[in-house]
# Entry
Amino acid sequence: MKYGSKLVAALILVGFLVLSFSALSMAEDSPKTIQLNLGLPPAVEEEPDEFTEKYRQVMEEISISEEAAEVVDQIKAAVEDVQDLSVDMAITEIRERRNEEVSLHLKASVVHKLARIEFEAPSAVRGMIMVADQANMEVKIFQPVTNVIVVRGLEDASKEALAALSIGQDFTQLTSYLDFSQYQVEILEKAELEGVTDYLLKVDAPEDEVWYVRVKDDSWFPHEISVYKGESLQGTMRLSNVVLNPGLSVEEITSLPQVKVERI
Amino acid sequence: MEPWLRRLFALCLMGCMFLVASCSAAAFEAEDLPLGFGPQGWHTGLGVSQEKVTARGLLGYEKTGIGGFLYQTEGQEETLSWFSGRKQVILGNIGYSLELFGGNTERPILSTFLSGTDPHVGAYGEFSRMYGDYGHGLAGQAQFPVSEGGEVEYTIIPYVQFRRQGVWRFSLTLGSSIGFGMSYQEPQEKVELDITLVREGLSMHVLLSLSEHPLTVGAGLTQEQAQVFIRYSF
# Structure
């Protein structure tokens, strides 16, 4: 009886398969009818893009002098096609009672997807070297106090770390940061020294910020940016020894002291 | 107990420790089996350690770990042991560490345990500050006896250090013993050296890690007592 029920079930299964197969065969033999809808798609009334409209309105409201526009265009052109760069940065952040000053040397390459930061000041970070490798999604940090290299994943890095590294990882951010064409720009000062003209621009940035940007016409790369919110100075970033497209090699960016490596 | 019987007993104990080590030590991150020769003859044992490293902000990290050793010396019936729990915090160029320990041997210098002492508990702390290639720091250690009659021992060790083909450290030892010392750590930490001269005498230790093999070779000399050992890490 036990084997009988199994046999019945097997027969039902075989019968079902045979019927299914024959039905499929008959369907393949029958003529096919294909219906194509070649009519034009129903006309959709295009709604005006709200963002584009607002952008256009804002741009129309912006009226800057011809000279300021030329300076803004020159800055944009200088930073537009940067593939790699080497720059010294001095960042001063104004806190309530004290100033935080950080000096560093940044090397970054879009081609190699690498960025390197060598900290020079304050003494609490002097000698530290950070190498961000976007291809391998990791950050290597040389720690002088323990004389080791700590390796950690980019996905584990804090938001601050990613923000600090993003400028080296993605130059489009740098170019958009230094593209002042969408803001109201005014030339406040213009001084000429040894054939080089130094401009001081006032940029009405978003979020009620005002940027004071110094740029020289020998490189058209800003060398000082001061950020004000209302009347108070928020911070200043000074850029020096700027070399655009120096053709940095992977070794130049990634070389670190030959010390013990620890992974987090 | 007859000497041959004592040796046999010690060998059996070592064999048992090896078997137990291979089974139970798998719970730890790193284990090693030392084999050494010192003033009391041959000795062997088991070392274990467990460490957790976590990031702290962009430029910092912290290590929390436990570790310790068990030793059996041929000439002594008492097993020597030393265990510790530690925490190290690195924030930029500033480092702090705190270690709480207990055992019946001295706190190891470059993994060398030379002599047994009265059972004790203690604490070791260190503050280190670098300014790029050079820096300074302060270490302190206090040791409290568990048994009656023991003495509290403490040392304060201010030091300066610099990096030049490794880390060189020059220190003063103040407190229960007074002296000065020097240590060197090769960049890859394959060679480490420690020399200290205190009132009680000269102390020298060297540790050599063989990068191709899971072996560490060390030697120590303290107050005319010498010890050499080899450690197999697994």
